[in-house]
Amino acid sequence: MFQDKPATEATTTGSRLEKITALPNEVEESSGVALLANGTILTHNDAGNKPYLYLLDAKGKLQETIKLKVPNVDWEDLAQDDDGNIYIADSGNNNNQRKELAIYKVDLAAPDQVQAIRYTYEDQTEYPPQKKDRNFDSEAIFWNNGNLYLVSKDRGQGATAKVYQCPISQATTKPG
After folding, report:
1. What is the DSSP track for 28-43?
2. 76 with 31: CB under 8 angstroms?
3. For residue 23, what is the DSSP state?
4. pLDDT at position 2, please?
5. Residue 103: Cβ within 10 Å count
6. Residue 67 pLDDT greater than 50, yes or no
7. Is the Cβ–Cβ distance between 130 and 114 less than 8 Å?
8. pTM score above 0.90
9. How far apart are CA 156 and CA 97, in angstroms?
10. Are 55 and 40 in contact (CB under 8 A)?
11. Are 150 and 141 in contact (CB under 8 A)?
């Protein structure tokens, strides 16, 4: 878990954001994004949408739709390892009551052979926990030095985020 540190003050100068691209209609609610080694962009839609990954060029033009044979219960984010494997965090848990959480490992060269890492939070004992203890909704995933990490969103007190390490070795092949 991260330690609380005081925030430093920052001011803005009223900068305006400039639109550099528009996403295709298929990407209605982009939730996770990964920049691939070849400069293309990979994204997906959020909860309840089709289990598709969208490959976009640098200008946002759809290059390919990769259809996966796993559910999109609540996909939140993407990560990529040094070997080019993509990890999809099916970790959305807004009400903190999900017991079937997963990270899907995908080799884009063989998208029909998805591996699943099933997990639970070691410190979650109630489904759902009391409102003040609802900090089991991971909205972000990242890969670093051979490990996956999930970052929680504190839906109870709104005070802290927790970081969980997930062993990649738990991946098992999910029948397509």
Report:
1. SSEEEEEE-TTS-EEE
2. yes
3. -
4. 36
5. 24
6. yes
7. no
8. no
9. 13
10. yes
11. yes
Encoded tokens for 60: 């946002």
For CA atoms 11, 13, 14, 20, give the dihedral sign: negative
What digits encode the pLDDT tens for the residues 86-108?
999 999 999 999 999 999 999 99
Locus of tokens 């996966």: 68
Quick: pLDDT tens for 95-154.
999 999 999 999 999 999 999 999 999 999 999 999 999 999 999 999 999 999 999 999
Place of tokens 């209605």: 28
CA-based nearest residue to 27, from 15, 7, 41, 8: 41
- Nearby residues of 5 by Cβ (< 8 Å), 6 or more positions away: none
The values of phi and psi at residue 169, to 5°, are -65, -10
